[in-house]
From TrEMBL:
Its main location: membrane. This is CLRN1 protein. Keywords: Membrane, Transmembrane, Transmembrane helix. The keyword Transcription does not apply. One of its GO terms (cellular component) is membrane. The gene is Clrn1. The chain crosses the membrane at residues 97-125, 137-155, 189-209. It is found in: Membrane. Signal peptide: none annotated. It comes from Promerops cafer.
Amino acid sequence: MPAQQKKLIFCAAGALSLACALGTAAAIGTQLWVRGTILCSTGALLVNASGPELHKFIGEIQYGLFSGQRVRQCGLGGRPFQFSFFPDLLRTIPASIHVSVILFCAALIVFALVGAGFFTFNAFGSPYETLHGPAGLYLWSSTCCSCGCLIMILFSSEVKIHHLSEKIANFKEGTFTFKTHSEQFANSFWTILVCSLVHFLNALLIRFAGFEFPFSKSKDSGTITGAVDLMY
């Protein structure tokens, strides 16, 4: 492939990595990771609510990695409540998983920025043979993609397996019991999925530029090169 086309491919990959870093940073600060509705089961059972009456006992909840808000309804109108994970919910939620999600988000931002810098360096400079060359670009892209996948797996397990929405809904509730009526992942969660796919695409762009995968190099080439060096 001509050098000019390789520069364009590397510039495009670097721009995508930079956009993913900025998108992840923006996603961390939002409350748009999970949206759902919560049912005040205690109130609904007391009045034996069903059909249209059940809507008077269904509130809303949305949260991110650091804070969120819920609107509880127990038949007397909505009552909003703001909360933060640190330090309010630290003893209620699976803290180790939640902190791991935040750390992997930070790692994703750092590695995406590093990858963007190395893509730019390979486009306008002379790439080295180690982490600055094609092997390094594969490394940064695969690391970012792995971080994105781990974020989605850990956060999904926290929400679905550990019932994070119910734990938040029942925080500081002594009389009423809330159950998750519906929940779905929101925009910030899908931003991480898009970023993971973009970094996978970057690895394909490197291959499209004409560079072999690091693990596809044959062992014979090193042996032949060593023999030639001995001749001289």
